[in-house]
Input
Amino acid sequence: MNKTILVTGGAGFIGSHVIRLLVNQYPKYQIVNLDKLTYAGNLENLTDIEKLPNYTFVKGDIVDRTFIVGLFEQYEFDAVIHLAAESHVDRSITNPMEFIETNIIGTVNLLHAAKQQWEEDYSDKLFYHVSTDEVYGTLGATGLFTETTAYDPRSPYSASKASSDHLVMAYYHTYGLPVVISNCSNNYGANQFPEKLIPLCINNIKHKKSLPIYGDGKYTRDWLWVEDHAIAINTIFHKGKHGETYNIGGHNEWKNIDLVHLLCDIMDEELKQEKGASRELITFIKDRPGHDRRYAIDATKVKNELDWVPSITFEEGLRATVKWYLQNEKWLNNVTSGNYQKYYQTQYTTPSK
Ligand code: NAD
Ligand code: TYD
Output
């Protein structure tokens, strides 16, 4: 079936993997990637598919309501997969307002435009909101987040995502807008901006810089390979039930320090250096304020109802990720030097000769 799908935040880490999957797997879908190209948006993530006839890039800001309404009128979208967000907890601590604007106002602008465009006939329409497990707050040593765990966000990032989730459900209950939400655990893989733990450590090991571990290093996260997240999003987009939430996770809990030890050992092997060399770079530093102790997802619902499970082990995914960063030195150098921000200028605004 033909569909025109708006994907927001498609130049970011997860969004670029979602777009690649959709344009390759569904030639009949028109995929429109709307992205503001903040520091986290990088069109170099999509060079392999940018010329495909079913892909269009639009530069724009989801906070600009007039622009968003106009975009819906222009393209008559059948569906939205909403990933655009400010996504880094540390940045939300230093600059919460951007998180409130993009993650809350931006989401309600999209909901408003979708409702306005679709309300005469909601059939075959879908608003898919991509969210995080961080909305559930923090766990003690035991227990898992399920879809019915009460929301208890504790950082400006997670509070803004929790607000956006509530607004999505409000549009479902109040206006009947067909929606679905997924809440996923920490992702890792190719194309992640090197401010997040895994690519930051890979980049620092390469440059023999210290590996900053917050607090005692025993904070725990449940890690999922980004391509498995993209497959889960595709599955939920096609098979998920309206008004439902699905938790997505890797059944893969790691204390930060244990993860960094494993990463150091893989880096030593891949760089052919003495075992233990990278571990010497580990430095414990002052903790993140309000640091959530443990996240862990119960992904039984998406497994039982939609038949999705992660496809690879963490050791496989982490090694593949290390290899990707080492083989894509230009990508990493462009990101760390800021050069990637010139790509849009040369690729999209220079007239062809
Ligand atoms: P990212 O920071 O890598 O990418 C975000 C993208 O959104 C960027 O391309 C950026 O330019 C764009 N963007 C930001 N503000 C915008 C605006 N106002 N208008 C239009 N575009 C804008 O983030 P990510 O890690 O790919 O996360 C994508 C989504 O998945 C987010 O909603 C995040 O909350 C959610 N999520 C992320 C993780 C994770 O581990 N990274 C886990 C669960 C859920
Ligand atoms: P991060 O990748 O920022 O993801 P999130 O905060 O969304 O879980 O951090 C993952 C874990 O690693 C988290 O417990 C914070 C910790 N961390 C460090 O110890 N040092 C760092 O430099 C970073 C970026 C994160």
